[in-house]
Amino acid sequence: xxxxxxxxxxxxxxxxxxxxxxxxxGTAVYPAAFxxxxxxxxxxxxxxxxxxxxxxxxxxxxxxDERGATRPVAEExxxxxxxxxxxxxxxxxxALVDQVMWQITEYRKHGFQILGIFxxxxxxxxxxxxxxxxxxxxxxxxxxxxxxxxxxxxxGIDVSLIGLKATDSLKEKLSxxxxxxxxxxxxxxxx
Length: 191
Prior knowledge:
By secondary structure, the protein is an alpha/beta fold. The chain contains eight helices and six strands; from the N terminus they run βααβαααβββαβαα. It has a four-stranded parallel sheet with strand order 2-1-3-6, sandwiched between helices. A two-stranded antiparallel sheet has the order 4-5. Helix 5 (87-109) packs across helix 6 (143-155).
């Protein structure tokens, strides 16, 4: 099964890294996406799985407050974090974690390599190394990534979680994933 032209290599990426239009008001740094990140994976024939945006799916595009962009980012992110911890958004969040875990286990069941999971540092949900809490950027995982990481551990799945911000060195962050020897693109292989 799946012996066609696909690479059988994927990465999971936080929604906002591929769609800045979904990010909370006042925090987008690109018009559309982290272009270099997408280009890297396409050049290396790695499929990109866009994870759902927990905040958009649970709170809406305005995150439940049209005045969000009037606050400092860490303060607004803390407000979002608190809103996500309420019962209804929390239930939706856990359903999103279930969806992503189902996809991960499906890919693994069929012999695909999951090279990494990229989150958006500072995010109250998708942060990996840093998140926002108490009106500051602090060390730790966001709510979504924390739950996803727990589920991966319970399932015994070892996948690198990598946090990314626009100010980070993309080359350094990409060095944290394990690219298999066959990770060269078709173009590189034929040259």
